[in-house]
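Much of what follows relies on a compact textual record of a protein's fold. With that in mind, consider the following protein and its fold in token form.
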Amino acid sequence: MALREDKCALEARDSGDGALQGMLAGEALLALGLMYSTGRSVEPDLVEAHKWFNIAALRGSAEAVALRAEIAREMSRSDIFDAQRKARAWLSAH
């Protein structure tokens, strides 16, 4: 699934410019979070969902902020830490 995720994120990053680019990136990353939180086309995985919501929130998605908080209530501290670590690793690589 990583190739599909990277393709979505790269398309979001490369489309448009300035504020529009950030908005599009946030929306594409939000969609990845929704896929993992609902199990749409992938196995449900709250750690992955939190990771993508976190990255989308950093890209300006207010909806991602709310959804990240919602699923965090269902996660252990260890899972949240893992999701944050994965988000940092992804951001470092991209």
About this structure: Helices lie at 2-14, 18-38, 46-58, 62-72, 77-93. The chain has a mean pLDDT of 84. The two ends are 16 Å apart (CA to CA).
